[in-house]
């Protein structure tokens, strides 16, 4: 579900990067594990998303849910940076990964 949402956001804003996105999918790790620690600045239904990224020791949590995660964009929470699809794509382009 999260992958499809991020893909839709990229389709709207940077459609020329979709081929690169699909190639990267094989290098991504998707996690459903949850962190044991509560995350007080997120509603209960969204805590498992960030908690799973933290528990899996992800460097980034890519989410297009600006309404619930927008206030965390660019912040590092327990070692995981919360980013939008555009933020991640811009970071990857700057590092010449795209």
Briefly characterize the structure.
This protein is mainly alpha-helical and 98 residues long. Helices cover 43% and strands 9% of the residues. The longest helix has 12 residues.
| Rg result | 13 Å
Strand/helix succession: HHHEHEEH
Figure out the total of helices: 5
Low-pLDDT ranges: none
* Order of adjacent strands in the largest pleated sheet: 1-3-2
Counting helices, strands and paired strands, the structural category is: mainly alpha
Record field, number of beta strands? 3
Query: What number is the mean pLDDT?
Result: 84
The percent range for strand residues is: 5-15%
Helix content: 40-55%
Shape: globular
- Through-space gap between termini: 23 Å
What summary fits the major beta sheet? 3 strands, mixed
Q: How does this structure look, described?
A:
The chain has 98 residues and is mainly alpha-helical. Helices cover 43% and strands 9% of the residues. The chain has helices at 2-13, 18-24, 47-55, 66-69, 85-94; strands spanning 60-62, 76-77, 80-83. It has a three-stranded mixed β-sheet with strand order 1-3-2. Strand 2 (76-77) and strand 3 (80-83) form a beta hairpin. The longest helix has 12 residues, at 2-13. It is globular.
Layout: helices, strands, pairs:
Blueprint: H1 2-13, H2 18-24, H3 47-55, E1 60-62, H4 66-69, E2 76-77, E3 80-83, H5 85-94
Parallel strand pairs: 1-3
Antiparallel strand pairs: 2-3
Which structural traits does this protein have?
3-stranded mixed beta sheet, 3 strands, globular
